[in-house]
Every structure is written in C-alpha cells, then in structure tokens.
C-alpha cells in the first residue's frame, strides 16, 4: 500500500534539524548551570552576612538572653559609661567590658593588665537592676581577685576617697596567689550603684592602699542617668588629687590612714 505523498511531506516538515536540537539542549544546560551558580552564591552571601554582621549577632544574643530570662550577656555595641583618667601605669593596657542583664542590670568592668598577664587592677561599676541578688560582695570580690577560687577575703581597713570611706579587703587562704592585692567595695545607694574591684600595685602596705585610693579617685563618668551624674558631681568636689608623688614610698612613715594595719588604740574603751 503506497503512502500518500502529501502525508510524507507533512512529516518531513515537522522534523527538527539535529543542530537546532543540540543548540536547545545546550541552552537548557547553560541556564541550569547559571541558576545553580546563582543559588550557591546567594547561600554563601547569606552565610557571610550572618557571620560578619555584629548587629545581627547582638540581636540574636539579646533575643536568646531575653527568652532565657536570666544570666548576663556581653553588650559589644554599648558605649562605655566610665573610664579611668590619667592613670600612669607603664606596661599595662586598659580594656573595658560591658555586661547587661535582661532585668536592667549593667556592669562596666575596667581592667588593667600586661600582655599575656592576669589583671593587675580591676574596677567594676554595677548598676543594679531588677535581677535577683548575686553572690555577696566579698565572695564575688574573692573570685575576681583569685581566679583559681581557692582563697577568701578578710577586711583590711578603710581608705578615704572622693566617694567617701571605702572598705578594703585582702586575700587569705593557704593557696592564695603570691602577689599582694587589695580589694575594695563601695555602695552608692543614692544612685543604685556598687563600685568594687582590686589593685595589685605597690610593694608595701601603704603603697597598695594609696594605689587603690588613686584608682577610685581617677574614675570618671562618661554618660549616665541623673542620679549617677549627681553622685559623681558630688564626689568630684571631694577629690583631693592623685599625683605620682601621692603614693608613699617604702621608706615614708605610715599614719593611721595609709598604714596597712588598723590603728592601735590607746587606753581603755
């Protein structure tokens, strides 16, 4: 049976040339490869963005901390509110760390240390919020002065500063660090603050006491609320100065204020 010539012509005209078929397949493969590359680049860009963007990290950290409902977190983007001015300490670098609590508390921690060395001095300004009370001031101070946690503290007299009288503490314990440091705690109830820290500067008791007083006298406010500003303004009126010769030498006689031991009382009470 012979086929119809008209039908054969129609079938021939409906066939696609092999070159056109190959070109179409190449175009399809190219488009698929471009889409795959674009998707990979977009994924890499998202990873880099979320890794390198500190604002995103801070927001995620803040959200996680708020959901947890407790605990302190580092506030990398908060500007410092305090500083220690004109403290000449060769070989020591000042660093600042700010911690925040979801309940409103804030801690500005200023440390002085040499490269690769433990802190030789530290001062923490704690703005108390609605968080639950932490450890007692003396216990917290002992853990900061002795990072091994093997020592405790005992009272070591009082020094006079621009904030008024400040209680001193020294480390005790069989395994206490070899370096001699003096800690201090000063609450400022009118502003809801607690200033604490330690200083390991000085070779003798009077030198260490004077160094701790100088560290507090050099503390200045950069920014804060009205109550904090008023407290520091009043403190500046009582500031007596802290020149290099303010720290007594080892040969200088010690009085009842700068002496390491408590004053000796005469007569009967």
Q: Report on the biggest sheet.
A: 8 strands, antiparallel
User: Which percent range fits the helix content?
Assistant: 25-40%
Q: What's the β-strand tally? A: 10
Kindly name the structural category: alpha+beta
Strand order of the largest sheet: 1-3-4-5-9-8-7-6
Order of helices and strands: HHHEEEEEHEEEEHEH
**How much strand content do the residues show?**
15-25%
Instruction: List low-pLDDT spans.
Output: 10-14, 48-69, 244-269
Mean pLDDT: 75
N-end to C-end Cα span: 141 Å
Number of helices: 6
Rg estimate, integer Å: 34 Å
Which shape, going by the Cα principal axes? elongated
Summarize the SSE layout with pairings.
Elements: H1 5-14, H2 18-52, H3 54-68, E1 73-74, E2 82-84, E3 93-100, E4 106-113, E5 121-127, H4 137-145, E6 152-161, E7 164-172, E8 182-188, E9 193-199, H5 205-217, E10 219-221, H6 226-237
Antiparallel strand pairs: 1-3, 2-10, 3-4, 4-5, 5-9, 6-7, 7-8, 8-9
What's the quick description here?
It contains 6 helices and 10 strands; from the N terminus they run αααβββββαββββαβα. By secondary structure, it is of the alpha+beta class.
Q: Characteristics of this structure?
A:
269 residues; alpha+beta; two-stranded antiparallel ribbon; 35% helix; disordered C terminus
């Amino acid at each position: 049976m012979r086929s119809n010539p008209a039908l054969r012509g129609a079938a021939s005209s409906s066939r696609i040339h092999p070159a056109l078929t190959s070109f179409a397949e190449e175009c399809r493969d190219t488009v698929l490869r471009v889409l795959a590359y674009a998707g990979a680049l977009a994924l890499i860009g998202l990873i880099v963005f979320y890794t390198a963007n500190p604002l995103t990290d801070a927001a995620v950290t803040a959200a996680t901390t708020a959901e947890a409902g407790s605990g302190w977190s580092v506030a990398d983007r908060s500007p410092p509110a305090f500083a220690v001015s004109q403290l000449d300490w060769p070989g020591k670098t000042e660093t600042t760390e700010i911690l925040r609590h979801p309940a409103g508390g804030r801690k500005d921690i200023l440390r002085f240390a040499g490269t690769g060395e433990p802190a030789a001095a530290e001062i923490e300004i704690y703005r108390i919020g609605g968080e639950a009370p932490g450890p007692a001031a003396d216990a917290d101070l002992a853990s900061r002065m002795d990072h091994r946690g093997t020592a405790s503290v005992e009272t070591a007299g009082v020094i006079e500063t621009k904030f008024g009288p400040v209680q001193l503490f020294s480390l005790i314990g069989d395994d206490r660090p070899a370096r001699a440091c003096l800690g201090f705690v000063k609450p400022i109830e009118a502003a809801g603050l607690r200033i604490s820290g330690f200083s390991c500067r000085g070779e003798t008791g009077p030198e260490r006491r004077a160094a701790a007083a100088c560290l507090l006298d050099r503390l200045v406010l950069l920014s804060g609320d009205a109550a904090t500003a008023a407290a520091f303004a009043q403190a500046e009126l009582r500031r007596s100065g802290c020149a290099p010769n303010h720290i007594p030498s080892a040969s200088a006689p010690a009085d009842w204020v700068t002496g390491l031991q408590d004053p000796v009382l005469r007569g009967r009470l």
